[in-house]
Amino acid sequence: MTQDELKQAVAKAAVDYIAPKLDSDSIVGVGTGSTANFFIDHLAELKASFDGCVASSEASAERLRGHGIPVYELNAVDTIAVYVDGADESNAQLELIKGGGAALTREKIVAAVADEFVCIADDSKWVECLGAFPLPVEVIPMARSHVGRELLKLGGDPVYRQGVITDNGNVIIDVHGLRIDQACALESQINQITGVVSNGLFAARPADVMLLGTANGVKQLSA
Ligand code: 5RP
Predict the structure, then answer these.
(1) Exposure pattern of 139-166 as b/e (b: 16+ CB <10 Å)?
(2) Which amino acid residue places its CA nearest to atom 6 of ligand 1?
(3) pTM, to two decimals
């Protein structure tokens, strides 16, 4: 199977997984990226079964609206039943690296509100140890050089992501060369750097469930 076929399979599996949990008042949190896009397309088949969505990016909001699915501001809803999103890496604890699509901060906020976080990914994202994928850090633009120097002190190799402005008007620094075995501690440490908005480690709030696309079918995993 191709990587896109695996992404399609997990997107469909996610719709099947969440369908029994939804009612006409339910809000679904929707992530960002190519796997999330496949999920949005399958979610459209279910749109009569829930109220609407909160999106983690302008791009996902636009795709949802294109399917006629109502999109709410996060401040307009009280609860999110389930959040479904992809990842750049996951370990066995379902701690993630996210932010390859530069939407990490909104993704983290929506995940924090959601009752359940379902991660969907093809098995190329499954790793023993996080860090081979460069860790994205969202940064206030004027703090870029300062944050870069501080990230160097943590042992990483920070690289400014040229030409990318987040939905929040900030920039991204990708930190290469990290071997992350204490994800919660590093997530917190990076967040302490003045000028950092958030980082792409999802360890304080990991996924609850992973639907992992493999050549032998979709596996459902919990930490
Ligand atoms: C966007 C993300 C995505 O979930 C992550 O980059 C995975 O993307 P894809 O599904 O395209 O492989 O965190 O900020």
Answers:
(1) bbeebbeebbebbeeeebebeebeeeeb
(2) 100
(3) 0.97
